[in-house]
From TrEMBL, chains A, B, C, D, E, F:
A GO cellular-component term linked to this record: plasma membrane
Localization (cell): Cell membrane
Matches recorded under SUPFAM superfamilies: MOP-like
InterPro entries: Mo/tungstate-bd_C_term_dom, Mop_domain, Transp-assoc_OB_typ1
Topology in membrane: Peripheral membrane protein
Species, as recorded: Haloplanus rubicundus
Protein name: TOBE domain-containing protein
Domain of life assignment: Archaea
Alphabetically ordered keywords of this record: Molybdenum
GO biological process, any: molybdate ion transport
Classification of source organism: Archaea, Methanobacteriati, Methanobacteriota, Stenosarchaea group, Halobacteria
C-alpha cells in the first residue's frame, strides 16, 4: 500500500497526551528535530501510539509552508 | 513575531520547481530527511526561495498524521 | 502499517487529469458518490494512479466539514 | 449559494460526541461507508447536529489523499 | 443550508487567475484587507467566479493560525 | 523572516477559550469581521495570546474556499 502524501518523516514518540477527543503526540525525528501532531484520541487507541515507539509523521505537501 | 504553528523544521532547499500558479519546493532537513512543500509561485517569488538557501518548513500540528 | 487518518473510502478511479505539478483524480466510491482529490503529479506517477484502478480516498478527520 | 469545495457526500449522522471545544461526528454515507468529522462544539450547537439527521460531509479537494 | 466552517468573510473579487487545474482568487474583504484563495479551475467555472462579484471567503477554524 | 502563507489579516483578540489541549481564539479584524482560530493550548501559552491584544490571523491560500 502506498499513500499519495509526499512527506513521511521517521522518528520516535517522545510523548503522548490525550484529553477528551483529541491527543497531542510529540515525535523526535531521526536527526533530532521534533514534530508535534494533533490527532484524535480514537486514533491513538486504534494505533496503540505510545512513548518510545518508532513511527512516521505523515504530511500532505499542500499543508507545508516555508519561512526564510 | 511568533507564529502559533507548532512545527518548524530547519533545512536547506534542494530544489524549486515552478509551473503556472504553483511551485514544489524540496527541503533537506538538518538530519537528512526530505520535506516537500507545495506553495504558490507567488510566494516563491515574494520570498526569493532558491536552491541552496536555508529556510524552515512550517506545519500546523492539526495537519500532521502518524503511521506505525 | 496503520495511518492515523480516520477516513478511508474505497472506490474506483474514474478519471485522472495531470497538468504541470498538480493532478486531479476523481474516485467513484462504492455506493456511487464521487470524491475529487487534488494531489501532486509526482504522486500520480509514483503510485501509478490510473483510470479504472481500485484505491482508497484518505482524509484526516479535522479536514471534514458538515452541512445541513 | 454554491461553495467551491468539490466534495459533498450525502449521509446520515450515526453519532455525535462533544467534549469541551471539539466534537466528533460520524456520518454514514449513502452506500454504507462511514466518514468521521472533527468540528467545533460551537458548530454542533449552531447547526443542531444530532443523531439520525441527514447531512452532507464537505471536503476541499486539496485535503484528499489517495492510497493504493 | 448551514456549513460547519466557522469563518465566512464577505468581500469582492479583485482578480481571478486560472492556469491548468488550479486558480488563484483575490478577495478584497469589506474593511479593505485582502484574502487569496487557491481553488480548482473547475470550481471557478462551476461557480462563475469573476472579477467584481461579491462572495464570501470560507475557512475552517482548524486551518487558522495566529501570529503576534 | 517571511512566511509563504499568503493570508495575514490584522485584528484584535476578542476572546480566548482554552479546554484541555485545544483553544478557540476569536479575532476581530480591522474592518469589523470576525475570524475564529482553533489552535493548541500550548501555542496560546507560548505566544501569550490574551484578550485585547493585537495579532494577525494567518491562513495558507490552499485552505481558503469561496462561496457565492
Amino acid at each position: 500500500m502506498a499513500l499519495s502524501a509526499r512527506n513521511r518523516l521517521a522518528g520516535t514518540i517522545r510523548s503522548v497526551e490525550t484529553d477528551g477527543l483529541m491527543a497531542e503526540v510529540e515525535i523526535e525525528l531521526d536527526g533530532g528535530q521534533v514534530v508535534t501532531a494533533v490527532i484524535t484520541a480514537g486514533s491513538v487507541d486504534r494505533l496503540g501510539v505510545e512513548e518510545g515507539a518508532e513511527l512516521d509523521a505523515v504530511i500532505k505537501a499542500t499543508e507545508v509552508m516555508v519561512e526564510n
